[in-house]
Design a protein that fits this description.
Blueprint: H1 20-43, H2 48-65, H3 70-105, H4 107-148, H5 174-177, H6 180-204, H7 208-254, H8 261-278, H9 280-285, H10 292-313, H11 317-325, H12 335-342, H13 353-363, H14 374-386, H15 390-398, H16 406-418, H17 423-436, H18 440-449, H19 453-462, H20 468-477, H21 481-487, H22 500-508, H23 513-524, H24 530-537, H25 543-555, H26 559-570, H27 584-587, H28 589-592
Helix pairs in contact: 1-2, 2-3, 7-8, 10-11, 11-13, 13-14, 14-16, 16-17, 17-18, 18-19, 18-20, 22-23, 22-25, 25-26
């Protein structure tokens, strides 16, 4: 028989005292971490990943040292390694999917440019083949002459084609060809046209050597300009210092001279250095009036504008558009320049000058940094839509070279309504624009009209800025049973956006009453008490609202449904059935007696 009573286990009052071996091990671990971090920091390679490697090695040493918990620590480290590898792989997959999404978004535009490039290359190949045939023909002729050892004879100019005097003259009627005055006038016209061609050859075309000479002169001029700018900067810096010293001496001479001149100059120079270190632009702004580059820049801008005017007046609209799009300081990237292109009336076989301007303007904009402003964006989209350039608009929107606005989304939406063949593309573009400019209700409506009801519901429930009016707007503009069921039921643990009474009342105010009646019938068919539970649990819709719903059901031949709703509403406490109009007089008789 055991007479000893076993005491229950209790935690120790003092924490366990580590042994000398444990202390040495901990110190060695800390020294290892500090040494590794200092080594990587000196090499400039200390980052999160390298820290993970260092502490992974430390964890391995702890596992080797702790024999009792080796299996548990090994399993823990293995789980952490797998989790980190999964995160890295997820990041890699995310980057890959983002790159793939960008490539898919630009695929239509890329295909369009590839086709255009293929057509250009086919034209070049045809020209090269013709030149090759001509050169090969000449080589055959040279070989034949060498075989016969006959001297080279200059080829005679091809004989002029014999003109049949009885044939009609091109561009003239038979009556005019018999009139001597008309013939003289036509001859003068041909002579003038010939002279214009000769002048164009002399003015519009120059030898290739001339271009090479100009390129060389341009490179030399740019090099000299850079050297001059360096010298100018040095001189301006010297001028600033001397001006500061001169002002300081002048101020000291006008003062009471209580401070030594040397100390005053030292203090001024110190303040100038501090000002230059904190705000270099403020230090140099005082000397802008003495900078000769300002007047040179104004002259160059004036010359640039004059050159643009020459191109526009001479009918070189594409060159003028490119010139305006790349103008310095954006002096020609404005509405005034657009109006000048809009005022030009092109020939039938020419591209629209206004469209050329917008292509150059939006194409030269920096991606997501300096997009075209909203006013020019709207005008550019209107111009592109007037020429049915939907592919061009897709490129502009996906590359984000324009300013997104709700008015822009409305413009593309309206065009899709007018042109059914482009409706799907226009809805997708409008959805992207509305989401960018935070027009939530219209973005969700675009998704619903594209059949993405589940995506629209998920988008609305996740957005905290989606209000009751937005849900009612969505319900009235796109009433479908899938959308109505999604808005009147819980979604992913969140309460329903609309009660059944709210949804039905909003539908009764539109031309889509049948959807409201169908919703009530579906609920009624779920069981005898299903409709009663919906009405009793509906805290948003009052009893008067349900009475109005019952009257509409009765007026639209849903009498059984109307009677069921009225019986449920009357059965509630505090609700009294309102008598018909002919009984109103009897009820009020006592008031007038």
């Amino acid at each position: 028989m055991n007479y000893f009573h076993k005491k229950p286990w209790s935690p120790p009052i003092l924490p366990p005292i580590p042994s000398a071996t444990d202390k040495r091990f901990l110190h060695s671990i800390e020294d290892f971490i500090e040494a590794e971090e200092e080594k990587l920091a000196a090499a400039g390679q200390l980052d999160v990943e390298q820290n993970y490697v260092i502490y992974g090695q430390v964890f391995d040493k702890v596992i080797e040292y702790s024999t009792d918990y080796k299996n548990i620590l090994t399993a823990i480290k293995q789980e952490y390694d797998e989790f980190i590898e999964a995160i890295k792989q997820g990041e890699i997959d995310t980057n890959h999917l983002q790159a793939k999404l960008k490539s898919l978004a630009s695929e239509p535009t890329t295909l369009m440019y590839y086709r255009k490039r293929a057509a250009e290359l086919e034209e070049r190949i045809e020209i090269i083949n013709k030149d090759s045939e001509r050169i090969e023909h000449e080589l055959h002729k040279l070989r034949d002459r060498r075989r016969t050892k006959s001297p080279l004879v200059e080829e005679k100019a091809p004989a002029q084609k014999a003109v049949n005097p009885s044939a009609p003259i091109p561009g003239m009627s038979v009556e005019d060809s018999l009139d001597f005055a008309a013939l003289e006038k036509y001859q003068q016209h041909l002579v003038g046209k010939k002279q214009e061609l000769l002048n164009s050859i002399n003015t519009k075309y120059v030898p290739v050597q001339r271009k090479q000479e100009l390129d060389l002169k341009l490179s030399l001029a740019l090099q000299e300009r850079e050297e001059a700018e360096l010298i100018n900067e040095t001189l301006m810096d010297s001028f600033r210092k001397k001006r500061v010293i001169a002002d300081a001496i002048s101020a000291w001479a006008k003062s009471d001279k209580s401070i030594d001149l040397y100390e005053s100059l030292a203090e001024v120079i110190k303040k100038q250095r501090e000002t230059k270190a904190t705000d270099e632009s403020a230090a140099t702004s005082a000397f802008d009036d003495f900078d000769p580059k300002r007047s040179m820049e104004a002259e160059s801008l004036l010359e640039y504008v004059e050159r643009f005017n020459e191109l526009l007046v001479s009918g070189q609209y594409k060159s003028a558009a490119i010139y305006a799009a790349h103008s310095p300081r954006g002096i020609l990237r404005n509405v005034e320049t657009m109006e000048r292109f809009k005022a030009v009336s092109p020939a039938e076989d020419q591209d629209s000058p206004l469209l050329l301007f917008f292509e150059a303007l939006i194409g030269s904009s920096k991606l997501a940094r300096h997009p075209v402003n909203s006013a020019l964006t709207l005008e550019g989209i209107k111009c592109a839509l007037s020429y049915d350039k939907v592919e061009l608009i897709v490129h502009w929107v996906t590359q984000q070279r324009i300013t997104f606005s709700e008015a822009l989304g409305d413009l593309i939406w309206d065009y899709g309504e007018k042109e059914p063949q482009h409706k799907v593309t226009c809805l997708a573009l409008a959805q992207l624009i509305y989401r960018k400019c935070l027009s939530l209700r219209k973005a969700a409506l675009c998704m619903c009209l594209q059949g993405q009801i589940q995506g629209a519901l998920d988008y609305t429930y996740q957005s905290r800025r989606f209000l009751l009016d937005d849900y009612l707007f969505l319900l009235k503009k796109c009433p479908t049973m899938e959308l109505i069921n999604g808005l009147t039921k819980e979604w992913d643990g969140k309460p329903a956006a609309l009660s059944v009474g709210q949804a039905v009342l909003s539908l009764l105010c539109t031309d889509h009453k049948e959807y409201g009646f169908k919703l009530l019938e579906n609920i009624h068919q779920c069981g005898d008490t299903a409709l009663e539970q919906v009405i009793l649990n509906d805290v948003e819709c009052t009893a008067e609202g349900w009475v109005e719903i019952a009257e509409e059901c009765s007026n639209n031949n849903y009498r059984q449904l109307s009677a069921k709703i009225m019986s449920i509403v009357i059965s509630q406490d505090g609700v009294v059935e309102i008598p018909p109009k002919e009984e109103d007089a009897k009820i009020m008789e006592h008031v007038f007696m």
